[in-house]
Amino acid sequence: MKKLNYGLLPLAAVFIILSISALFWQGCSCSGDKNSDIAEITSIEGEAKVNGQPAQKNQKLKADDIIEVDKNSVAKIKYVEEGYQFTLYSADNKSAAKLQIKSPSDDGKSFITNLIEGLITFFVPPKDQRSKLLKIQTDVAVVSIHQTKGKVLSTKEKYTAALAEGKIGVNISGTDYQIGAGQQINFDKIKKEKPAVSDYDFMSETEKKLYYRAGDQKTSSGTDGY
Fold first, then answer.
1. What does the pLDDT average to over 170-193?
2. Rounded CA separation 194/188 (Å)
3. How confident is the model at residue 154 (pLDDT cuts 50, 70, 90)?
4. Bridge partner residues of 180 (DSSP)
5. Residue 113 domain-assigned?
6. Residue 31 has what pLDDT?
7. 40 and 60 in contact (C-beta within 8 Å)?
């Protein structure tokens, strides 16, 4: 009787395991995979870059990608899985604006966007249309966003989180603040005084342009500007 070559069995077993693993990961759109597409650029007005290279409409974005827009330029970004939508602007058109797409945190329960500098407006769909929380972090604060529409501004001198709809939680220097629709919180990074909460008129001539841009279509929720 021909004897089996038991010495080959471990190699065969390893080959099968590796093959199955490869098939699994190729078919898995796991949010924690740094090679997976987290978001995409849906439109560009003016000049925009991804990781220092010219950006393109419909370009996919992965974890750690940095999106930058020049002065007088705008880029719109949408998260593939949850439908979060951002519009990235230069703050007061004085310098470029940058944000970074981060890997999901909290065991995949939260998406994080790092606003390095500039201004973003955001729209988060209703809770029944998503399963994860969105957080926008800057050098001084973290915003936890529920269903809402608003903006975050971060420059070297100041920080602002303002809300047109919904509610947000803002943590500045370890202190939590709850901001509702029609409110804003401002923090002077130079003076570092206690953050001030005040009214926010999102329908003023300057602010409504951020949310209701000419030529934009309404979303299924009736929200313009995204």
1. 95
2. 8
3. very high
4. 167
5. yes
6. 46
7. yes
